[in-house]
Amino acid sequence: MKRILFFADASSIHTQRWVREIASRGFDCVVATRRPAEVLGASDVIPIRPGGDARGWLLALPEVTRVAKRVAPQWVHGHYVTSYGLWAAACGLGPQVPVVLTAWGSDLLVTPREKGLRGGVMSALVGWSLQRAALVTADSQDVLAEVARYGTKARCEEVLWGADTERFRPGRPAEGFEIASLRSWEPNYNIGTVLEAFARLRAERPQAHAVLHLLGGGPDEAALRAQAAALGLGDSARFLGRVGDASMIAMLQRSRASVSVPSSDATSVAMLESLACGLPVVASDLPANRAWIEPEWLVPPRDAAALAAALVRLHDDPDVAQALGRRNRDVAARRASRRAQMERMAVLYDALRLKAPQPA
Predict the structure, then answer these.
(1) What pLDDT was estimated at residue 231?
(2) Exposed e or buried b per residue across 135-156, where buried means at least 16 C-beta atoms within 10 angstroms of its C-beta
(3) How many C-beta atoms lie closer than 10 Å to residue 290's C-beta?
(4) Distance CA 46, CA 35 (A)
(5) Is the pTM of the predicted complex or chain greater than 0.85?
(6) CA end-to-end span of the chain, whole Å?
(7) Least confident of 51-55, 203-207, 221-225
(8) Cys-Cys with 78: which of 84, 110, 117, 339 at CB 3.0–4.6 Å?
(9) Which residues of 308-336 are buried (b: 16+ CB within 10 A; e: fewer)?
(10) Are the C-beta atoms of residues 263 and 190 closer than 8 Å to each other?
């Protein structure tokens, strides 16, 4: 049996999708986690010190080792280098069990770069974990460049979370000018900037009957609702929160544009899903986004005026918007298929196992 022990957030949709895809390719997937949840495809989900306190990651290490020995996997895979990646690197199963680490973005691009003691400690932990990996994956080249900065000898590969391009596909848009925002309601994603840009669009083009669909949910909900009220947006700004794939697809298919303007990001699944639905996407000018979005549709992360101007242009020139949507669908179908990405990941797992030293 080919068994992988994942150290990962079981409640994350990204973990759930990865495990489901890999399990469907003949791997026995076990998930050890601080956030227990059902994971379709996993043969077991093992809670380890549930919670989110920082000390818990270190205090749990003896239990992590016991769990790893009991599960006896052929691979261990840590998702998010600064936490679960530490567990994967420290579980102590020896060189015959390859360690795989997947960087999610902020674990390399944000936390280790913080000033002061915390940033220094996190940078040291990242370096220690990366030195023990046989394979490191990330979903953008800028994150892989950051991995290389730590001098790891691991094989480094760009592997996308990808989009389900068979389900996320173009549909029939609504009559009005509807806009999708799929990012979480927390500071990095600049939803306040999206609201301000949307208010400018409505003021400049009242005939558009513009509607903004806000998915994602998050801790800034109260502040964002207050901002929307202060901007006089009424029910044109619709706070939908977290929804399932079917509802998300339906919302994307009725929209005419998608916005994603975080301050820091790797390759966003939300962006890929918008591309797959054939939507024009206006995104923040970040290295990861430049690989997917044409330069004229990239804006500074907190520049509401630039974002509003791009949305006005998409409204005013539907031919441009439709051509851009067709281009985006083609890009997603060719480069962002989750099925193709996970097929490749399964091959990478097998290649690691073949190269690992076998026990005597």
Answers:
(1) 98
(2) bbbbbbebbbebbeebebebbb
(3) 15
(4) 10
(5) yes
(6) 19
(7) 51-55
(8) 84
(9) bbbbbebbeeeeebeebbeebbebbbebb
(10) yes
